[in-house]
Fold these 2 entries.
Entry 1:
Amino acid sequence: MRKLLHNEILKERLTIEEAQTAQKHPISILLHNIRSMYNVGSIFRTCDAGRCEELILCGYTPCPPRNEISKTSLGAVETVRWRYFKDTTDAIYYLRMENKKIFALEITDRKRYYTQIKSKDFPLVVILGNELVGIDQFILELCDDAIEIPMFGVKHSLNVSVAAGIVIFELVRLYRRFSFGEIW
Amino acid sequence: MRKLLHNEILKERLTIEEAQTAQKHPISILLHNIRSMYNVGSIFRTCDAGRCEELILCGYTPCPPRNEISKTSLGAVETVRWRYFKDTTDAIYYLRMENKKIFALEITDRKRYYTQIKSKDFPLVVILGNELVGIDQFILELCDDAIEIPMFGVKHSLNVSVAAGIVIFELVRLYRRFSFGEIW
């Protein structure tokens, strides 16, 4: 097997112009009080790769333009649509007006796995909470449901940008299966 | 729905003693010339969460004990088995002697998705390459196959610790389906 060359990989990717007009996957990510700019930048990069509809930054989550975000996003700040809401409650209100289902990625008594999203759940928003305390109970109560990633080790949770990647790529896979019959 | 309390979550997790004797998933991760200690720490944390067999650190990939690794791993350095090989070629030689299949996570002409791993491919090792240049062609030629994560945006690739998370959790899901009939 042969590693693809830089220009061969480029041909597989969208140009910035194509990315701006391409049909997005109806998957949005909401960051509630994320502290680290590196996590925000990394999630921008993953939202680009998953062609997500939108990244919603809330509370004290840092917003572009910030050098640390640009550096870890590798420029994805230019291709991913984003909005800022000071108040996560307001963000949820507007997203619901846009007919989106709201899911929290949090450890709750629901025990629904991130792989158990159905066709009727799209378009959707997944809320990711603060690195230390996660999503507050009052935010959780505004959500349609909670999903979680099963943990098989000692530690409570994953790094938030890693968790975002796992959920985004599973949702992209499910959406493309439901909508285009793609099986992978 | 209700967010679980700290002690309720603890009850769902393994203790350190249990983790050390628990049957691991036959999934190992090999890091080839990873530069960032934060990426290494984050991958330790994900290997704990996925109860991976082993993390193999090669080349100039930084090894524990390092404060930056401990910090991002949140202590998973204590629960995940790891080895260091200066030479990735040697590591592949020994892993193959242990009857493991060797997969590269790299963009190649193979175009096999990370979701297309079969029951007979376990036990396996996934090699993740350097943040900038990925996996060298001469390492690729020592592998049984290459897998890749499809990219739907402008950027070439994901952050290496995010990519590791996506692949590890899909492999855990597939392994548990093949071995225990778990469907999730």
Note: The longest helix of chain A spans residues 160-180.
Entry 2:
Amino acid sequence: MNYSSLTKQQLKDEYERQSKRYENLKAQQLCLDLSRGKPSAEQLDLSNAILDCVNSSSVLYTENGTDCRNYGLLEGIPEARNLFAEILDTDPSNVLVAGNSSLILMFALLSHAMIDGIMGGVPFCKQEKIKFLCPAPGYDRHFDMTRHFGFELITVDMESDGPNMDQIEELVKDPAVKGVWCVPKYQNPTGVVYSDKTVRRFAALKPASPDFRIFWDNAYCMHNYDGDTHTILDIISECKKAQNEDMVYEFCSTSKMSYPGGGIAAIATSPANIIDIKGFLKYATIGPDKINQLRAVRFFKNKQNIKKHMKLQAAVLAPKFAAVQKVLEKELSCCGIGEWTKPCGGYFISFNTPEGCAKRTVSLCAECGVKFTPAGATFPYGIDPADRNIRLAPSFATLDEIEKAVEIFCVSVKIAALEKLL
Amino acid sequence: MNYSSLTKQQLKDEYERQSKRYENLKAQQLCLDLSRGKPSAEQLDLSNAILDCVNSSSVLYTENGTDCRNYGLLEGIPEARNLFAEILDTDPSNVLVAGNSSLILMFALLSHAMIDGIMGGVPFCKQEKIKFLCPAPGYDRHFDMTRHFGFELITVDMESDGPNMDQIEELVKDPAVKGVWCVPKYQNPTGVVYSDKTVRRFAALKPASPDFRIFWDNAYCMHNYDGDTHTILDIISECKKAQNEDMVYEFCSTSKMSYPGGGIAAIATSPANIIDIKGFLKYATIGPDKINQLRAVRFFKNKQNIKKHMKLQAAVLAPKFAAVQKVLEKELSCCGIGEWTKPCGGYFISFNTPEGCAKRTVSLCAECGVKFTPAGATFPYGIDPADRNIRLAPSFATLDEIEKAVEIFCVSVKIAALEKLL
């Protein structure tokens, strides 16, 4: 029964029915969490052999003869640079491996832009206004980071093949616009994979500001779970072809290949940017944790082996995403009160309620013991102008939990929608 | 023969003698390096069991039930906070454990001060001038970091019981003075241990600026090698007693207890500072590498055990420092042309040539195949006004290498001094 074709009385009856279901579900006093993109323990177990890859009997030298136990190698060990270069289809000389998370690298680069300026440009803190483009729905931590730095966040619409490039091409004509957040593959939260056309339009941007940078967070580059591998164009070589070699910072990490926080992270970018980055990084650190880089390299070996490893992860994740789809389909497809994405990788499903129903839905879920990311979190400033978008993150929960949580979610969507209609 | 009592002809004869020695040593075409405070492979080997402390059969949960393989615990795992609290004689709630080096924490705090301001104060980048106090000779990376941020560096004299506190008490009356670099125990490069009086005078400072901070880099707190353990007062509780609770950031790491770059690092400070730090850190990262924290905690266990471990390190280091002292004593004590420190811990010996001879000495050594930290590096801007100070770092070289290197050093000091006298 499509809600839009129901009479007032029929809507009332449906509201009564769903409210009763809701009360019954609430009585079960559940405590479920679909709020964050955390791997489950079952997934983490798949990587436990990484803990045995370096031990006291191991060779602890890099291929260029550096003792990984001692100081040095600001840019990371050659083996780790090679591995990320292979993953990202770029040259090892473009890669710097540092730290345990790519997020902290993004923060370091924005701090550099604020304090020093990019490549000798005027520091952002000395410029009157800095604007940053935020394709939304998008990743809340990205938006919050740029908000923390005091930038003005400008929402760009997410389409099915990437951000709306007409909007971006127009917006970058403003010299105050200094960057754009991108998750090019299995975008958080839509799961969208950027089309070749989108990547090429990014590479060909003509920003007014020379210190404009694309923050290309390739967090889910190996994270498909449908057996098929979607490929995206290499942004670094596309930028070079378009004579925009220095315009992109690409990020990657093994956080969601092995352990979140216990992995290794990298930035890939032009040689000139690498020089600029090392120019401030050398004041911050003598070098990264090379032992942990060695551990990751010995565990993952090469891209082909990572693909095999990610298939094992997919075998855990795919049924969970299928379960979400099944319940959404069963509960909502006939009602006409929700739209959602059907991603082939990544960690999220993006759900749109009817306008003005997202906050109410999340709040109903919370009362019923199911936690979601706050409605609005996927938009700049945490404000979804249409109050529609909710991010579903089923990776951490069990299959049973997911089915129950999504059922409660669907009932909540229905109640919120019916409240609006009545 | 004291050079000051020699006749011109005697000086000429001595110059001839030392020049011949120098040419003979040069003919050996040596390649020796006493430039950096790097542990030797023999020392690193002492920690190799740390690589076996966490493996695929280990319990990977913290005592509070957090899976170390997954996201979370911005402030570090409780076990690691406890360990650093014990090392630093402070409360675990004052401790935040993050990253693989304390240097990067100092850089993060200065970036925070630049961009956000400390505890809601005016960001340093919006203030006209920032000045930083640099007790010298001191650690070149400290000075270079604050220089990188564009601060004006002000030299403070190092005395035998810490920095000259009369100077510091006067200088902090200037509201542009925002901080001071300290290595309170076995200072780099003098090996000086701050006296209780010095620590208390630091704690009782009355800086004009509320965002003045003491950067208390307790890098060598466990690093004695004379069998005796020097204790310094806990700066955090001293500051609290003096109602200056928020005035100090204390730093520590296991870099020179296990592996440089492969260890874990901590900051200890007041509860209000911890809140301020987490307030920006949460935008930079979801959490530290908790697995590596677990590894360190299981290896080091507690302070008593670290003491035992550091005794093993001392057994490697002490003979090296003794060898330096022996050669310096033999070659120079009678000539009256050099003064040097006799530290009981840390990684360095500080040497003063006669005025105007340090650069020439280092250059003579380089020509003879022995590398030292550039003369002047131990002073702000790399400029030693008296051109006297040279840092000797014998940890990485072998005993034979050290004896040869210090012999060449002594001959070079003599030649440089004689060139001045003639």
Note: The mean pLDDT of chain B is 97.
